[in-house]
From TrEMBL:
<dbReference type="InterPro" id="IPR036291">
    <property type="entry name" value="NAD(P)-bd_dom_sf"/>
</dbReference>
<keyword id="KW-0520">NAD</keyword>
<dbReference type="GO" id="GO:0003858">
    <property type="term" value="F:3-hydroxybutyrate dehydrogenase activity"/>
</dbReference>
<dbReference type="GO" id="GO:0016617">
    <property type="term" value="F:4-oxoproline reductase activity"/>
</dbReference>
<keyword id="KW-0560">Oxidoreductase</keyword>
<dbReference type="GO" id="GO:0005737">
    <property type="term" value="C:cytoplasm"/>
</dbReference>
<comment type="pathway">
    <text>Siderophore biosynthesis.</text>
</comment>
<dbReference type="InterPro" id="IPR020904">
    <property type="entry name" value="Sc_DH/Rdtase_CS"/>
</dbReference>
<comment type="similarity">
    <text>Belongs to the short-chain dehydrogenases/reductases (SDR) family.</text>
</comment>
<dbReference type="Pfam" id="PF13561">
    <property type="entry name" value="adh_short_C2"/>
</dbReference>
<dbReference type="InterPro" id="IPR002347">
    <property type="entry name" value="SDR_fam"/>
</dbReference>
<comment type="pathway">
    <text>Amino-acid metabolism.</text>
</comment>
<dbReference type="InterPro" id="IPR051122">
    <property type="entry name" value="SDR_DHRS6-like"/>
</dbReference>
<protein>
    <recommendedName>
        <fullName>Dehydrogenase/reductase SDR family member 6</fullName>
        <ecNumber>1.1.1.104</ecNumber>
        <ecNumber>1.1.1.30</ecNumber>
    </recommendedName>
</protein>
<dbReference type="GO" id="GO:0019290">
    <property type="term" value="P:siderophore biosynthetic process"/>
</dbReference>
Length: 251
C-alpha cells in the first residue's frame, strides 16, 4: 500500500532536480508516483519533462509556466480535484541589492513567489470543497531562515514563501487543509552545477562551497520530506518551515 494512494498531486518544475526526484521513484527513497499518487507533472520545459516521464504509469506531463496566471487557471480548471499541490518552481539569481535591477526583482518575485499565489489561489477552492488537501511549497534555507551573500532577491522571494505558507495555513486549517514549506540548503541539481560552472574555476568553487555549507544534499533527500508532508502521516503539521540542511544552520 502506498502512502499517497488515491491522491492527485499537481507538481511544478518537474523536469529536473528536486521537482523530478519528488514525482518519480528515486531509489532507495520513494517519491509521489511510487507511493500511489496520480501525478500531474508540469514544467515550462515540456520537451525535457516528457522525455523524463514518458512511459511512467501514473504521471501525466503538462506544460506550465508558473508565472503565467492564465496558464495556471486553465490547467487547474481541467482537474476534478487536487489533494497535493507541490510548488517547486524557482530561479536563483546571483548578486546583492546593488546588482538587482527592477526587472530582476520582478522576474524573481514572479517565478518564485507570485506563482505560488496563483497556484494556491486556483487550487484552494477545490481543496475547500473536498475538505482536505496538502500544499507543499519550496522555500530555502537562504530566506528568513539564514542570510547568505550574493542572494539578495532570491532570499527576499523565499522569505515571502514562508509568509505565504503560514498565512494560508492559518486561514485554512479549519477546512482540513495544511500548508508547509521546505527550506533546503544546497542540493545537487542541474542548476547548482550551472552556478558552480559559472565561476572562473569550478573545481575550486565547488570545494569552497562544500567547505562553507558542509555536505551537499541529494534531491531524493528533499523528495522524501515532500512525500511525508504530502501524506496523511504529517496530518498534525501545518504552517511550518522544515529546514533540511545537513546541519549548515547550526554553524
Ligand atoms: P533546477 O533549478 O535545477 O530546475 C528548475 C526547474 O524549474 C527546471 O526544470 C525549469 O525548467 C523549471 N522552471 C524554471 N522556470 C519555470 C517557470 N517559470 N515555470 C515552470 N517551471 C519553471 O531545480 P532545483 O535546483 O531542484 O530547484 C527547485 C526548487 O528548489 C527551486 O524553487 C529552488 O529555489 C529550490 N531550492 C534549490 C536548492 C538547490 O541547491 N538546488 C536549494 C534550496 C532551494
Amino acid at each position: 500500500m502506498g502512502r499517497l494512494d488515491g491522491k492527485i498531486a499537481l507538481c511544478t518544475a518537474s523536469a529536473q532536480g528536486i521537482g523530478l526526484a519528488t514525482v518519480l521513484e528515486s531509489l532507495p527513497r520513494k517519491a509521489f508516483v511510487k507511493e500511489g499518487a496520480r501525478v500531474i507533472a508540469t514544467d515550462i520545459n515540456i520537451s525535457k519533462l516528457e522525455q523524463k516521464v514518458k512511459d511512467v504509469p501514473g504521471i501525466e506531463a503538462k506544460m506550465l509556466n508558473v508565472a503565467d496566471k492564465d496558464q495556471v487557471t486553465s490547467l487547474v480548471d481541467q482537474l476534478d480535484r487536487v489533494d497535493i499541490l507541490f510548488n517547486c518552481a524557482g530561479i536563483v539569481p546571483n548578486g546583492t541589492i546593488l546588482d538587482c535591477e527592477e526587472a530582476d526583482w520582478d522576474q524573481t518575485m514572479n517565478i518564485n513567489l507570485k506563482s505560488m499565489y496563483f497556484l494556491c489561489r486556483a487550487v484552494l477552492p477545490k481543496m475547500v470543497a473536498q475538505g482536505s488537501g496538502s500544499i507543499v511549497n519550496m522555500s530555502s534555507s537562504v530566506s528568513n531562515v539564514k542570510g547568505a551573500p550574493m542572494r539578495f532577491v532570491y532570499s527576499v522571494s523565499k522569505g515571502g514563501v514562508s509568509g505565504l505558507t503560514k498565512a494560508i495555513a492559518a486561514d485554512f486549517v479549519s477546512k482540513g487543509i495544511r500548508c508547509n514549506c521546505i527550506c533546503p540548503a544546497a542540493v545537487e541539481t542541474p542548476s547548482l552545477q550551472e552556478r558552480i560552472n559559472a565561476s572562473p574555476d569550478p573545481v575550486k568553487a565547488r570545494a569552497a562551497f562544500v567547505q562553507k555549507v558542509g555536505r551537499i544534499g541529494k534531491p531524493e533527500e528533499i523528495a522524501a520530506l515532500a512525500v511525508y508532508l504530502a501524506s496523511d502521516e504529517s496530518g498534525y503539521t501545518t504552517g511550518q518551515e522544515l529546514v533540511i540542511d545537513g546541519g549548515w544552520g547550526l554553524a
